[in-house]
Amino acid sequence: MADLRQLNIQYVPKEDRVLLRIRFDDNEVSLWLTRRYCKLLLSVLETLTNGNAQQQAADGPKEKTIKAFQREAATSNADFATPYQESTNTHPLGDKPVVAHQIEYNRINDQQIRLTFGAETGEKINLHLNQALLHTLNKLLLMGVEKADWEISDNIQPLPAPHTIQSEPLH
């Protein structure tokens, strides 16, 4: 598996979508994230970083304060200032972004989560993330959603239990 080198999230007004770019050692993947997908991804990240709905309901003020401190500590070493470095290497999903439509996640061990983005083309992009990277991805996504002015970041709900999320076609 290639090492994750850089994540970039930006809102693209012309598309009214968020663009997620993931640069690995030897390739780059670009995914369009719709408003609905961002809302689901934020719920997944909330669950992975702060626990599912039942766990959060049981948290008291002390636990919530500790989790807020952990969130700040996890992102304190992240570099949000360095511009994204375009990869000149391969783009396995093509040169243009593809729409993400599925999210899967599972715990690999105590320190690692596998977060899988399913593209509309059928390909899957697996990210192995520690808690610091989960919090960083969450912060980047929140910043992108805020720029989109979609009004979804104020009411993010954790998921009840781990599962696969896939958008269904609307007719």
Please characterize this protein's 3D structure.
The protein has helices at 35-50, 53-58, 61-75, 131-148; strands spanning 4-12, 17-24, 28-33, 98-107, 113-119, 124-129, 165-166. By secondary structure, it is α+β, with helices and mostly antiparallel strands. The chain has one domain (4-166). Strands 1, 2, 3, 4, 5, 6 and 7 form a seven-stranded mixed sheet that branches. Helix 1 (35-50) packs antiparallel against helix 4 and helix 3 packs across helix 4. The N and C termini lie far apart (38 Å).
Keywords:
171 residues; alpha+beta; 4 helices; globular
Low-confidence stretches: none
Number of separate structural domains: 1
Class by alpha and beta content: alpha+beta
Largest sheet: 7 strands, mixed
- Sketch the topology as an H/E string, one letter per element: EEEHHHEEEHE
Q: What global shape is seen?
A: globular
Mean of all residue-level pLDDT scores: 82
**Helical fraction:** 25-40%
Distance N to C terminus: 38 Å
Write the SSE topology:
Layout: E1 4-12, E2 17-24, E3 28-33, H1 35-50, H2 53-58, H3 61-75, E4 98-107, E5 113-119, E6 124-129, H4 131-148, E7 165-166
Parallel strand pairs: 3-4
Antiparallel strand pairs: 1-2, 2-3, 4-5, 4-7, 5-6
Helix pairs in contact: 1-4, 3-4
Summarize the structure.
The protein has 171 residues and is of the alpha+beta class. It contains four helices and seven strands. The chain has one domain.
